[in-house]
Amino acid sequence: MGCTHALPVGRPAVDAVELEGVHALSRSDLEDRLATASSPRLLGLWSGVVFDYEAFDRWVFARDLERVERFYRARGFYDAHARAGRVETPRAGHVRVTIVVEEGTPVTVGDVRIVRRCAEGEAESRLECTVGGAGLVPIDLDVPFEAAVAARQAATSALRTGHAFEEAKFASAEKDVARVLHDAGFAWAEVHADARVDVGTHRATVALVTKLGPRATFGEVTLVERDPDTHAERPLTVLPEAPLRTAIDLRPGQPYSTAALEDAERALLDLGVCSSVDLRQDLAHPESGRVPIRAELVPTKLRTVRLGGGTELDVIRTDVHVQASWEDRNLLGGLRKLSASIKPGLVLYPTKLPDLARPERALPEQKSRLELRQPGFLEARTSGVVRGEFNIYPVLLQTRTDATAPILGYRELRGTVGVDRTLGPAWLGAYYGVQASYPFTYAGELDASLMRVVVSYLELQTHLDLRDDRLHPHRGVYLGNDLQLAGGPLGGDAGDVRVQPEVRAYAPISRRVTFAVRGTVGFLFPRDYGGTLGDAVPAGRDVQLVYFRAFFSGGPNSNRGYPLRGVGPHGAVPFYNPGLQAQQIAAQCEPGSATFDAVRCAVPLGGLSLWETSAEVRHPLAGKLSGAAFCDASDVSTALALLRIDRPHVSCGYGLRYDTPVGPARFDVGWRVPGLQALASAPERNEGDAGTIFGAPIAVAIGIGEAF
């Protein structure tokens, strides 16, 4: 039984559309292009629950057969045929349709040449070749060697010999070769792709015929504004000209390059003062050899104020907070950017999921940040950065609450100075940072072993972003790395080397479904601390420094079946048990002993080695709502440079995303898969208590933006 709408008058409803004989191409991509579709079911599962019917139309179905053949031919299958295999009527007013495809043999790519047409009377000694009877010569003698090599690489990477001859790749080769020639300074270069298909041998010979024109330089660069409301053009009135010209970094007489134009456009957008940038080229006068540029800029608001609030609720803590921020993108002129934010809140202790116990204390916390960015620092595309933070926060790490333990907190000062720069799809930042963290207690006695912690470090951040979209990637790759050097001549309490590379990859399953995968490893090499991490009761100094420097796993952007910092070794922390001797604590934390105290011994210790991996299948649901099925795995180890795969901590689940202007709001539920937390061969180790929600081994993760 189910809820249905009335059958369409005069036409049967489509129960199912099936494809037979589809092997070489994507079945889902083909189904997306059919106008005849199955009637939608509830969650795609229950055939008795239909919200609306798809009506069967024979004329539309006939066009669908043509669409199938066209889809195949666009991918090199010139012999493909589609026919209606069966049109069945399982019951009155309903049909099931089967399309049978005969794929045939694909046409493959043979010879690929990049040539230009012979000039009238040109000597035959210039290696003439013929494609389709036209007199053509290779362009190698007309362009620089590097440009000729790059053009050949662009053509053969799109059209690979022996691979199927696809229309999209044929068009891509034309555009890619033109792009190479434009980057080499041939602003007026044109490329027209020509192909000769031998149906008998199923081979295609391709000629990319070029018309080069003269090599060019940039001409005069003109800057104008467009009104955000009326789009009327006007001289620069809101935006200062000098820093814009510094950022655009195009000068008359500079060799022409489309790559330089794209870098200029990206640099203008990175300033954050333009909602759109349009760099228009004047190609009307090739005889001059110069290409004037007209930059049309739509300014955005240079000063903004934001107010908001929210709450956080998980198996570790509950808090309520407000947030305020102010930003000036043209401080004292020069497009200097000054931003300030403050986020005060209260942690309701010990209220948390799933029991939602009545709060006994309200622990105040706050995060504040001030940042100044100077564009054009040292050189045109480099920004100087000065950043300061002051934070107060409680350290709540356990899913269970020990009423006798002190409630530890930190007051923290952070300062950072450095530079960062965008280089095409790559970005790098080099910084010096220092943080000073001062322990205190919201309640209870502060252990005498706790000390002020000062960390002084150099940091190099790099990433290469080759994704098609930053907020909603559908295909592409992202590579990143974070390298820190702390202590030594820089001073501070911690001396170490910390490195964490990461890779993310995205591949389309169909036009609207994306497969995403992420992997990262992290290694910490301490020089003057961490030696007692493997002990039953680590030294307080080691635990304290590791809290600020080591790796943890679990939470919304990590392993979503675990709470924040929930993956990895847990143990006793001396300063959570003031007044107890180390021997007493060790006795209580021996797994399997009669005195084992799971609460006191369940504090995350962090580790020196980390690995994490995640995979997702993202798909649309309705409107701005989408979903993702995911699996995460990770581990943290106290061993040096050792990745332990025998503790995979696998969690799988499902999440919802709703699009907002700052990225998708995300709600994920992860389930810890039984038997895949620690393999049987793994040595016994205290993993702590990840907690449950309503008795189930799950965790809830809420965030803004995709998990990766």
Write a structural description.
The chain has 8 helices and 32 strands. With 708 residues, the chain is mostly beta strands. The protein has 5 domains: 13-102, Ubiquitin-like (UB roll); 108-211, Ubiquitin-like (UB roll), CATH 3.10.20.310; 217-299, membrane protein fhac (Ubiquitin-like (UB roll)); 304-446, no CATH class; 466-474 and 497-575 and 601-708, membrane protein fhac: a member of the omp85/tpsb transporter family (Porin), CATH 2.40.160. Helix content is 13%, strand content 43%. A 16-stranded antiparallel sheet has the order 15-16-17-18-19-20-21-22-23-24-25-28-29-30-31-32. Strands 7-8-6-10-9 form a 5-stranded mixed sheet. Residues 1-5, 41-51 and 123-133 have low confidence and may be disordered.
- The helicity comes to 10-25%
The N- to C-terminal Cα distance equals 41 Å
Tell me the domain tally: 5
Number of helical elements: 8
CATH superfamily of the largest domain: membrane protein fhac: a member of the omp85/tpsb transporter family
CATH first level of the largest domain: which class? Answer: Mainly Beta
CATH fold assignment of the largest domain: Porin
| Strand line-up of the largest beta sheet | 15-16-17-18-19-20-21-22-23-24-25-28-29-30-31-32
How much of the sequence lies in strands comes to 35-45%
CATH 2nd-level architecture of the largest domain? Beta Barrel
Q: Unreliable runs, pLDDT <50, ≥5 residues?
A: 1-5, 41-51, 123-133
Main sheet specs: 16 strands, antiparallel
Number of strands: 32
Q: Nearest-angstrom radius of gyration? A: 32 Å
